[in-house]
Amino acid sequence: MSSVSSGEWHRNAACATSDPETFFPLSYCHEDQVRPARRICGRCPVRTACLVDVMATENPARRWGIYGGTTPAERAALRRAGLTVTPAPTAPSVGGDAA
Ligand code: SF4
């Protein structure tokens, strides 16, 4: 599911033709409900850009949905671990710096 902000990368999102409900399972705790979205994200050519975007733009108090192959709890854990995201003009990168 492409995330909340817009960008050129959205045009290449693997989820563009998928059922949006796939990315909003009833339970994020049951892998069988999360796996279909993870599979789509796993073959998505813009996964890194998606994850960078959602980490930079989503409201931490209102995390919802699977983006970049991550659940809301996983993104919260990345943020707690000190993940930094740095969008680059040509090649977005994701780096971690767990303290
Ligand atoms: S990584 Fe997943 S949620 Fe993000 S654009 Fe690709 S398919 Fe959609």
UniProtKB/TrEMBL annotation:
Co-factor(s): [4Fe-4S] cluster
Superkingdom of the organism of origin: Bacteria
Keyword Disulfide bond: yes
Pfam families in alphabetical order: Whib
Main location, first listed in the record: cytoplasm
GO molecular function terms noted in the UniProt entry: 4 iron, 4 sulfur cluster binding; DNA binding; metal ion binding; protein-disulfide reductase [NAD(P)H] activity
Keywords, alphabetical: 4Fe-4S, Disulfide bond, DNA-binding, Iron, Iron-sulfur, Metal-binding, Transcription, Transcription regulation
InterPro entries per record: 4FE4S_WBL, Whib
Gene Ontology cellular component annotations, sorted alphabetically: cytoplasm
Location of this chain's protein in the cell: Cytoplasm
GO BP: cell redox homeostasis; negative regulation of DNA-templated transcription
Domain 4Fe-4S Wbl-type: from-to ranges: 14-77
Stated family: Belongs to the WhiB family.
Protein name: WhiB family redox-sensing transcriptional regulator
Native source organism of the sequence: Pseudonocardia endophytica
